[in-house]
Design brief:
Radius of gyration: 28 Å
Number of strands: 8
Order of helices and strands: EEEEEHEHHHHHHHHHEEHH
Number of domains: 3
Oligomer: single chain
Number of helices: 12
Shape: elongated
Helix content: 40-55%
Structural class: mainly alpha
Length: 318
């Protein structure tokens, strides 16, 4: 009788008694084998059936078994170990108290099981996307970024990848729209709901993506980069990076406001009203407070004078 292919289960690699090890999102899936002692490891499915990859026939397994990450847990059998803790703790290891593998119509020794992470975030797709962009191959780039976006299993994976991405390369320029909308923005929005500082910082640094999508910008109540940094500095008053970023944002806004001078002072795309000029002068006062090194003192004085002259033009004639 032809030998049956061994099923592949989506579990982190184990080695003897070393137990499950945590992995960074960017690591490629590893393989390993669990020791099969006098008693055997028990694994089962939570809600969905395993997905059989490859050819299969009734009563036999002709391909690799996989089950979705969100549905995975280990059963501790008679040992009393909490299944949720057993599936997540990096220090937990199979012991002799665990029973047999318990799968629908399948009973196997874990020494014959290839343990692998399911649907791990595929960084190779993102690397390929960047290479295709650099070489001008737009069709292949679009396909690679779509595959990369689809490789995320849940919000937790998106949070881990987004935090790393923003810390290394994902700020200071526009993020590709589908990547931002489907991967980067959901973790930022989730963090904003709890006023997490990393989320405020990330939203400030990717504000240009928000401005280009009313659908996304509306979800943060149309707050701009300055607003996110303001909120961040209130939470973290000693954050020097946030202080300097907010100061830079204020100065940039003032430079924009006078780029048509002496025609007037701009507020968004139109000439500022008297009330809007009052708001602008509040920003001047805030910028002076933030400018501890007084690097912008000359500019701020000149800008304040121009705003005053413009306001005088708007005053009704007496």
């Amino acid at each position: 009788m032809a030998s049956r292919a061994q099923p592949t289960f989506d579990l982190p690699a184990t080695s003897g008694g070393e137990g499950l090890r945590g992995r960074a999102w960017s690591q490629r899936p590893r393989t390993g084998r669990a020791a099969c002692g006098p008693k055997q490891l028990s694994a089962r499915f939570a809600s969905r059936k395993p997905v059989v990859a490859g050819p299969q026939a009734a009563g036999s397994i002709g391909g690799a078994l996989q089950w979705p990450r969100n549905d995975r847990f280990l059963s501790a059998g008679s040992t009393g170990v909490d299944p949720k803790r057993a599936s997540t703790s990096p220090n937990w290891a199979p012991d002799s108290g665990l029973s047999t593998v318990d799968l629908p119509h399948i009973r196997l020794c874990p020494s014959n099981i290839d343990f692998r992470e399911p649907r791990a975030v595929n960084a190779q797709h993102f690397d390929a996307f960047k290479q295709y962009i650099d070489s001008g191959r737009r069709t292949e780039a679009a396909r690679s970024i779509a595959d990369f976006v689809d490789s995320f299993a849940d919000l937790e994976e998106k949070i881990a990848w987004t935090r790393d991405y923003l810390a290394t390369e994902g700020a200071g320029h526009l993020v590709r729209h589908e990547l931002y909308e489907q991967v980067v923005f959901p973790p930022l929005l989730d963090g904003l709901s709890r006023s997490e500082s990393w989320s405020l910082w990330g939203l400030a640094r990717t504000a240009q993506n928000l401005y280009r999508s009313d659908k996304l910008w509306r979800q943060v109540n149309y707050m701009n980069a300055q607003g996110f940094l303001d909120r961040l500095l209130v939470q973290c008053p000693g954050d020097e990076k946030a202080r300097k970023a907010l100061l830079a944002a204020l100065i940039d806004g003032m430079r924009y406001a006078i780029h048509e001078w002496p025609s007037g002072i701009l507020y968004t795309h139109n000439g500022a009203t008297l009330d809007e000029c009052a708001d602008i002068l509040q920003d001047v006062a805030k910028a002076r407070e933030l400018d501890r090194e007084q690097m912008h003192s000359t500019f701020l004085a000149d800008f304040e004078r121009k705003v005053g002259d413009y306001m005088a033009r708007l005053q009704p004639a007496r």
